[in-house]
Fold:
Amino acid sequence: MKIAIVTDAWRPQTNGVVKTLSTTADGLRALGHDVRIVEPNQFKTFPCPTYPEIRLAWLPYGRASSLLEEFGPDAIHIATEGTLGAAARKWCLRRRFPFTTSYHTQFPEYVRARVPIPLAVSYAHLRRFHSAAARTMVATPAMQRLLESRGFRNIVRWTRGVDVSLFKPRDKRFLDFPRPVAMYVGRVAIEKNIEAFLKLDLPGTKVVVGDGPARAELEAKYPNAKFVGFKFGEELASHVAASDVFVFPSRTDTFGLVMLEAMACGVPVAAYPVTGPIDVVTQGVTGELNEDLRAATLAALKLDPNQCRAHALANTWETATRQFLSHLAPRQVTESTTESALDLDSA
Structure:
């Protein structure tokens, strides 16, 4: 099958969305499918307001149309709600071509962290965006319940995996810091709530792996923490495996792939009991969830690393990729069933 994946999030961005989409594309190809990624590097771009590190496609409809028509997909998946996602949605609706979408980011909460736009306004926009899709894929049961409570329809589950051959227990001596080492991995941005981790009174060393618009401010404010920038591949896996506890302070993530990667390394997770962690962490086994993040961190240090590793081994990318494939809406199968959805939006 020829599968087009349209996304506003792609390399050189480093985040869970890009990791999920790139790994899924590789998995689909391994299963014999022809996959085309339509992404911002193929277009003229402009910096995302308030987040200039992210580049968005500028007026992409014409070129996106040409790329899709040239490829001739059997199925189209629109992964994001940015300018490219909107262009692909418009192309599909005009041609009565069924498509699926996915909900990777709690966008309304991210926007509200930067500008005072009411959640109801942002959710109304996203509900309209996804309403014409045959299915909208989400990573966790909690995310499904949240969106359904906001009026979203046709929600299905698309879980995540972890590369257990890369993320595995390794030598703790890789990091020569006072123990225990508490680690955060991800974008250094306001919506990730990293300061909740950095201001904790903890023994040992706090390590931040990643970069982003808030790094300079936080690095100056918390000089005792170790900011090491982005790491990739073996180096990233070695950093994660060398920590003693993985702290996930975000309250707005839809999944948190890095938590699975930490567990695969035998590192327990400390997090808030919110969407994302509540479906990824097994309380008291692979991590500790607590509104008191310090208490969660100290309790997680006592958990069995072998239990964390065992949990991660059950979450493979092959399973996640086959789940994604089963939710796609190939035109010849679902065209008749999506016409009613198209009537909702003629844009």
